[in-house]
Amino acid sequence: NIDSHPLMKQISDWEKESIVKIQQKARELRQELIQKHTIHLGKLSKTLQDLSDQLKLGREHDSFVEVDIGNWKKSLNGLKENLALNSILRINQDCGTPLVQNVSVNSIENDEVFDRVFDNSARIEENGLAVIHTNNVGYTDVRGRNEYSTGCHRICLSIQQSSDTWLFLGIKAKSRPLQEISYSSKSTYGWSSNNYSWLNGQAKANQLSARIEMKTNDTIILIFDCDNRKISMTNERTAVKFDLVVDLNDCPFPWQLHVILHEANSHVRILS
């Protein structure tokens, strides 16, 4: 029954939270309108009193002149116009941050496979599901087949073999060529198992207490959120999640899965 699906509950929760936010904002706006209306009437009352005092003073001293009468008529007409509240107040619709966060339903199914390697220091096996380094140490660039430009995508990777000294997982722009030292490319974004994150080809030491780990038998979940220009990595064993915001000037769409093997016999497999 689709009505009992957990995602249906998430949608219902979002609906309730959105209604509460809208009702709260409406109450705040009504209160603000009442306050501004009160202030507005107070100002009009003072202006009317000042005008009345001027008329009284002119009558007592018999000092009316045509200019005074003209000015008083203008003042009275202005007061008449300002009595209408909508002549001075407007409802402003902010085009910036929305009151209610927009949500959508995205498919995160993935048919990713490894498609290209930089050189023969790595080989692709199992119809593209696995990539294996030779028994020599050296960097090599590996790319996935799929292209990511919209939506949110999930890739599940199994670390079949790694000494946890240097392995990179992340993204790279399709337009950038395969290369040996691909971690230094400006379009490289992701994480390496020596506890560094990489943004536009620059290494940044991990500041969290939890390490970035990619050990043998670990399962790593990569999320490519194109709509929000973010990527994330979660190690299921440690349950630690890391996030990066991607600068499209450095790493333009479409993105591709980017793996850099370095350790001898390191082996990564795509699970889903």
From TrEMBL:
InterPro entries: B30.2/SPRY_sf, ConA-like_dom_sf. SUPFAM superfamilies: Concanavalin A-like lectins/glucanases (SSF49899). It comes from the Eukaryota. Gene3D superfamilies: 2.60.120.920. This is B30.2/SPRY domain-containing protein. It comes from Rotaria socialis.
